[in-house]
Amino acid sequence: MCSGNFAKCLGITLIPLAIICVLCNILLFFPSGKVADQSQDITDEVFYLGGILGSGVLMIFPALVFLGLKNNDCCGCCGNESCGKRFAMFSSILFAAAGAVGAGYSVIVSCVALNHGPKCFLSDGSNNATYPFTDGNYLSNRTMWELCAGPGDIVTWHLTLFSILLITGIVQIGLCAFQVINGLIGTICGDCCGCCKE
């Protein structure tokens, strides 16, 4: 498979993953699918926008670059027909690195959020949302989830969405790493399909 075709496949895969991350981050602003009474009731890590900025916006740019590599027609420089393709493949390495950094940010935010647990209202009837869990102790002890009286099933909501962000971010990092390797091959060897076809 040509390096340009492979990059296009990666771009096609990254776009839906970026959309999933943006949607998950937006849903986290609505604890258990409900509108929060005040912003203090929302888990702090949601405002770090790991899914919107990291795995979302920062991932769209590399995806679009990867999609355009196959159709790149910048042929010929200094008498060498393939150098335009080689430069495009080299620039894709930089965009892949930027995408990996964004996805890495999302992964870190998700790990911290999963470790802290959600903000929720305690079963003692207090009106202020707080963090009842520490150091991820609730992950292995489901009976602790009863400490949270609401909103709704907030622990499951929190775990599900941040887990999706975590897994999706790891997949994005892997795809960007593949493009770094693919970009190096394309830079050194050129696009095996050729650049200028008469």
How many discrete structural domains?
1
Q: Approximately how much helix is present in the residues?
A: 55-70%
Beta strands, count: 2
Low-confidence stretches: 75-79, 194-198
Mass-distribution shape:
elongated
Indicate the radius of gyration in whole angstroms. Answer: 22 Å
User: Strand sequence of the main sheet, in spatial order?
Assistant: 1-2
H/E order of the elements? HHHEEH
Distance between the termini: 21 Å
Write down the overall mean pLDDT. Answer: 86
> Pairing-aware structural class of the strands and helices?
mainly alpha
Major pleated sheet? 2 strands, antiparallel
Q: What is this structure's SSE topology?
A:
Layout: H1 3-28, H2 50-69, H3 83-116, E1 121-122, E2 148-150, H4 154-189
Antiparallel strand pairs: 1-2
Explain the overall architecture.
The protein has one domain (3-189). Helix content is 59%, strand content 3%. The protein has helices spanning 3-28, 50-69, 83-116, 154-189; strands at 121-122, 148-150. A two-stranded antiparallel ribbon has the order 1-2. α2 runs parallel beside α4 and α3 runs antiparallel to α4. The longest helix has 36 residues, at 154-189. The protein is elongated. The two termini are 21 Å apart. The model is unreliable at 75-79 and 194-198 (pLDDT under 50).
Q: Can you describe this structure in just a few lines?
A:
By secondary structure, this protein is mostly helical.
For the structure shown, list the relevant keywords:
elongated; about 200 residues; about 60% helix; 2 strands; two-stranded antiparallel ribbon; disordered C terminus
